[in-house]
Amino acid sequence: MTESNPNQKLSCGTTPAVADKPVQRWSAVRKWEVVLRLLRGESLEAVSREIGVEPYRLERWRERALAGLDASLKERQEGDPVQAGLDAAYKRVGELSMEVELLREKIARLEGGGSFPRARSRR
Asked: Is 41 strand, coil or helix?
């Protein structure tokens, strides 16, 4: 990415005009540059007037950028030792939950006088 001059207008590609208003498509890089300007403290209204994009659209770009940033910071990397420890703990909790469930069922049968199924011969 190149350093952009904040006083320089961003150029945007246009397609054939619809009702005398050109349809503009913004690349992710160019949106990123605009969002960075907003995050650095430039006025939303000033940036909107300069580049010719509605303020609500700039706010949406900023919100999406911050949401993506938040999600990426919460994501754990592959091979993360903390995540490996959590995975092992979740597995052990699942095993213990199943064991508790089986033991409660066994206790209920013993207290209720129910019979257990006969074990098959292993021969």
From this structure: coil
